[in-house]
Amino acid sequence: MKKIILLLLNVCFIFTLTNLCLAGRFEKSGEYYRYFEDNGSVARNQIIEYDRKRYYVNDEGYAVFNSWVESDGDMYYAGNDGTFKTDGVYEIDGYKYYLDSAGKLQKGWCGEDDLYYGDLEDGFLVNGFQELEIPKGWVTEVDKEKTGWFYFDTNSNKRVFSDDDPYISKMIGSRRYCFDQNGIMRTGWRLMKETEPAMRGWMYFVEDSSDEFKFGEAVTDTWYSIEPPAEVLPGAEVRYFYFNGQGQPRTAPVGKYQKVRLGEKTYLFNEYGFAVYGVQQVNGDYYYFGPSVQDCSMKTGYINKDIDGTNDGASYYFEGDGRGVTGIYNNKLYYKGKLQMASVEQKYAGFDVGGRVYLVNTSGTILKNRKKIKDGDGSEWSTNSSGMVTYKDDDADYTTPVPPELSSDR
Known about the structure:
- By secondary structure, the protein is mostly beta strands.
- It has one helix spanning 2-13; strands spanning 25-29, 32-36, 46-50, 53-57, 67-71, 74-78, 88-92, 95-99, 108-110, 116-118, 128-133, 147-152, 167-172, 175-180, 185-186, 188-191, 202-205, 222-226, 239-243, 258-262, 265-269, 279-282, 285-288, 301-303, 316-318, 327-329, 332-335, 338-339, 349-353, 356-360, 373-374, 380-383, 389-392.
- Strands 13-14-15 form a three-stranded antiparallel beta sheet, with no helix packed on it.
- Strand 29 (349-353) and strand 30 (356-360) form a beta hairpin.
- It is rod-shaped.
């Protein structure tokens, strides 16, 4: 007898829209289903829980299908079988929504770990860039941060954020942006990865919109003037950096320089990522990279002005590849690009350049085929047809060739 009673109870508990039990039940009426309470009255305008599922019946008692319904100020969606959609993202009429475990439409931050954001008015999940309030309880890198810019994927509507590293570089359209572990867009210098040299792992994301850049985008494929990150070079002045297509600054290996051809000009980069200027030494050769931060491309040919701060009246000559010439050019003597000249007091001076000694005057011109001409001290010198010294008094000394003064811009 007990088995028969239990069997009857189980049959009544199993739900189909056509079965009849003594408890509340659905009855088919045409193409629709009506819900009757256990006392036989029709349930109206309310949520029905039946067989561990939820339904909504309208003012005539019929179950609602494929429609939004409102109950006590909350919105729910009844699917094509009449049951509420629950616990996930659903696309409805071209929009996506997040419904919780009870089927209630969620607005604002929602989903596991606040992965989504529902429009506060209509509830659809937002995508693209959004400036939103930061949820209470989040730990952010800026104290008492209230709002931030976020990006939600246009396909999944999920918040973009960095899983492991402090920041992630995300390509959105044709531009790169930086997001932290919360998904907050970050600007300024950001260390994206540990590298050697350190500067190679940094990227710069603009802090203000302009005609050239959008707010927050990484600087790529161009020059940009900015102070270096304080973590790499504290207290440095504004410098010119060149960022490649991935947003990385052009850098040289640690302790070295690297010449780089960009367009029609050549520049010299150091390990800190900026182009240096002035007279610089690379692999033993001397080069001239302009007079200032704003004009730091490699210069070639004659330069008839003071470039090394010595104010000694010398001029300079740099070959087509930028190296300062050592030897004779246009009947004048150069060493590492700097013109070698006798002082006014010397009148004439012999310089040993490349193992050959040449006699020059106060303008740096080589003196050829001279016989026992006297310098400022009265010492005699003789030269051959190439200007090389063939004779000098015993008390006459050679003058050490002097290269240009190196720039302090390192």
